[in-house]
Amino acid sequence: MELTAPLTVNWTLSYTCNFSCRHCYSRGQARPELPLERVLGLVEELARCRVLFVNFGGGEPLCYPHLWEVARAAADRGLRVSMNTNGWLLDAEAARRARAAGFASVGVSLDGATAEVHDAFRARPGSFDRALAALEHLRDAGVASTVSAVIHRNNVGSYRRIVELAAERGAATVYLHNFKCAGRGAENRTELDLSPGEWRAFYGDALAWRPRAPAELAFDDPILALLGGADPGAVKGSTCGKLSLHLEPDGEVTPCGFIPVSAGNLIDQPLDVLWSTSPVLRKMREKTPEGKCRSCGVYGECLGGCTARAFAATGSFNAPDPHCWAGNGRPQGGPS
């Protein structure tokens, strides 16, 4: 199955950010921002191609001066609008404005179960308390919330408490994100990333706890197929370039925010044409196994794991995911 346009567009309106997180893929990036009328024109283009979801990331979306206007325009055109924020600027007034602008949900990053762990990871003292307060403001304003937690060496042992904190403040879903190894994540990978075996242990524990967790647990890692735990979906492997793409502040398109390879620009080319003709997106959809993936018995399920992580580590879309714990082309062990 191949769609005529992406279901989801993850849109970086600006790379401006008030944080300097230790895992951030984009902190060193800078791109010119389009004038507001051009941005609103891109909203019309997404609607024309029947994109269903638009998620604003960054950068910090709340630093973008036209966020509410762009979100309202997208919601009025029938897109389901969401964003991911570090929560620092999300006070009670911002929560009310999010509701008025038509946000279907807002995701807040929570990367530690204590201020010590979260604030160190986010390199911003006070950010833990502001993130928890942001969830409370969203709840009070009647805006659905989710939590994004990047799993790393300093929080993996307390991830259940992160989920509990999120649920206590009304978050329905907690996304337990894999460590992407891009940008500052690559710089700090030795200190913060887990080993393949540790990833296997974490996923085994999380999958076993999932039915009893106080919030829905969501994962974005194709290597869960090694444990038989991948959520059923429309595609195998990474969804980037198959169900979703990333839109830069200047209209440039990449397969995802963690793969800085241009697939074209929406200022020059209609979305549906770019989606169907881009050689870069074609390579994402038609991967050729390399290395141990050639003989792996579950390659057809995970398609090499996370393409962004493989690209960050090797420069190849087709290389095995460096988090993969399979040895000699065969998965080690079974479901936990």
Can you summarize the main beta sheet?
A: 10 strands, mixed
Helix and strand succession? EHEHEHEHHEHEHHHEEEEHHHH
- The total strand number stands at 10
Distance between the termini: 32 Å
Keywords:
alpha/beta, ten-stranded mixed sheet, 14% strand
Written account of the structure:
The chain is of the alpha/beta class. Helix content is 34%, strand content 14%. α3 crosses α5. The C terminus is likely disordered.
In short:
The protein has 336 residues and is α/β, with parallel strands linked by helices. It is 34% helix and 14% strand.
Show the helix and strand layout.
Layout: E1 8-12, H1 36-48, E2 53-57, H2 67-76, E3 80-85, H3 92-100, E4 103-109, H4 115-122, H5 127-141, E5 144-150, H6 159-168, E6 173-177, H7 184-187, H8 189-192, H9 196-209, E7 216-219, E8 244-247, E9 252-254, E10 264-265, H10 271-277, H11 279-285, H12 299-302, H13 307-314
Parallel strand pairs: 1-2, 1-8, 2-3, 3-4, 4-5, 5-6, 6-7
Antiparallel strand pairs: 8-9, 9-10
Helix pairs in contact: 3-5
